[in-house]
Amino acid sequence: MTSPIGIEGGGTSVIADGEPPPNAKGEDEQLIGRSPGRLMWIRFKRDRTGVISAYVVIFFFLIGLLAPVISWLYGKNPYTVYADERPELFDSAGVPVQPNGGISGEFWFGLEPGNGYDVFTKLLYGIRTSLGIAVAVTLATVLTGIVLGVTAGYLGGRTDYWISRVIDFLLAFPAQLFFIASMPVVVSLFVSPRDETPVYVRVVALILVMWFLGWMSLGRILRGTTLALREREFIEAAKVSGAPPGRIIRKEILPNVVTPILVQSTYMLPNFVTAEAGLSFLGVGIVEPTPDWGQMFSKASTELVMQNDITYMFFPGVSMIIFVVAFNLLGDSVRDAFDPKTAR
Amino acid sequence: MTEDLVLPAPREAATDAPGEPLLEVAGLVKHFPVKGGFPIRRTVGQVQAVDGIDLTVHVGESFGLVGESGCGKSTTGRLITKLLEPTGGRIAYRGKDITHATRRQLAPIRSEIQMIFQDPYSSLNPRQTVGKIISGPMEINRIEPEGGREKRVRELLEIVGLNPEHYNRFPHEFSGGQRQRIGVARALSLDPKLIVADEPVSALDVSIQAQVVNLLQKVQQELGIAFLFIAHDLAVVRHFVVRHFSQRVAVMYLGKVIEVGDRDSIYTRPRHPYTHALLSAVPEVNVGAEDDEEVPQRERIRLAGDVPSPISPPSGCRFRTRCWKAEDKCAAEEPPLIQLSGNHAGHLTACHFPEEPTIEARDEDIVLDPALAALEEDADD
């Protein structure tokens, strides 16, 4: 009887009986397998839309990060009130005298009607504030989603029941209305209404409010994924080896839920950017003089600006559209790269 | 067999005399509650997946557990490996009661009972390399083999017939048979004394099945590991449980062991009607039979209907609803699992009206399926 066990040659799924195929030394490097993450990266790099969107998104994050450096090189800051410093640039109503909102070699994106802030630096710092808040909210929601979602899915039973009911309850909230209504309440938890509210309190309040109603969708997805993973046999294999629950969650479950986490957070982040802009637009978010993306829209929609200087809306509006579209396209590409079987 | 594979020396061979009981299972029961009702959900029934079975697996023995889908074979395997908590009964490993042991209490013997899973596509973590998958159990149990874990993993890969260079590969780069070999290597990584193989080949191609069964057999014989081999395919079990000093097979039906005995008794001298029916359903190819002996015509039994629901199993003998010999006694009284007169020692059968110990053709085929019977009558006319 010949040996029933063939040594299986590298790279093929054909079972060769007898001699293993000769392996040249040079081939050894190829025997290192490509991880699912690596395969995803290779697929992603092939997707031109995704790569361009990624560059655009990175560009925006760089702008946000380097805002102080850029404005230092540019020689201005977003807090200088040019209506006082350089009154000759404005007419009696406070509108820039020069056409197109005062765009010139000195003020690249023009000047803000009214106070006369420099629009370029204001936009840079606005992007910085908005992205900073959105990233913080995304991190907080992802963490909460992982902790509660994976716990509910892995433990199941009563824990799962109660976490799911909390998720249902919070999902039933009208989010926008809740944001608007609760912002002043949350702010007043930190400072008395009579005092002036420091900027960081508003930022923290914004993050808290958006986090509170933002984590449920990811939590629910992770619960479902974990529930499905829990029944897989490799989890049972880990249990048979005596692995403690902490190790099973860390080593077996978490690496397998990276996909939904990444995909979901690339969808969530632009949503938080627009939500934050919306709140600032409505006047419950960041207020003057702190620069903020949404608050620039709010300024642009005042009667003075609407009637005299429509150019002011242009730069924040266009930059936000580019950012949100690019980020959503990036999210699509990430999803496609992770899940090549779903055709669009 | 000419194989110069690196096999580790058997550990503590002195304490393990073959024939000593390794695993003893007595009256094992597992009921799954069925919840229902609104608005308050309560238990409305019990799925009696495993309802009082007794098994003993000896050191180095290969023990086959067969039965059709849903009879509780896999549940039994999962109870023994403590993936499920038994509802009742007793499981003892080397005389130590582990029925309700916690994870910590189990820790010392965890490495001695390992499992091989059914679905090779689900039993390997897609995010880990083969090396990590196989060394994981050693890491958990803090085992540092001589020469390091990586060396040991490469050895194991060689034992199961894979290329040691596959160490850094990921599961998705392997075929089903290769994945199952990785699963075997993982089970072997802790030098177990007992491996529960839960339908290890049913998800594989028929051509690969034989290779994996041969691998398991080789592992079993050369490393002296006791196997509890669960399968629904009698032919696979017969193939596995062979050429060995101890070779027993238990037949399960609806959560009970209805017949148990050594391989030859079960396959050639079965007594329980259900075992007869099962054996008659095994397809046999006689074209160019390799054995010199004349192949006798086999009996032919065709059952009707399905296995009854394990939520409300029949009273008395559970097989009576599909049995051609059932009488009033079968409904009233549950037959005990005993050694019938004329049986070999250790051949136990649970039946009030056992069949003759032969599988040769009867005067008349037993065809209980009315549709099939009608068809055959038409053909005869």
Automatic annotation (TrEMBL), chain A:
InterPro entries: BP-dependent_transpt_permease, MetI-like, MetI-like_sf, OppC_N. Belongs to the binding-protein-dependent transport system permease family. Residues 127-331 form the ABC transmembrane type-1 domain. It is a multi-pass membrane protein. One of its GO terms (biological process) is transmembrane transport. Residues 1-29 are annotated as: Disordered. It is found in: Cell membrane. Its main location: membrane. Pfam families: BPD_transp_1, OppC_N. Keywords: Cell membrane, Membrane, Transmembrane, Transmembrane helix, Transport. This is ABC transporter permease. The chain crosses the membrane at residues 52-74, 131-157, 169-191, 203-222, 310-330. It comes from the Bacteria. GO terms for cellular component: plasma membrane. It comes from Streptomyces viridochromogenes.
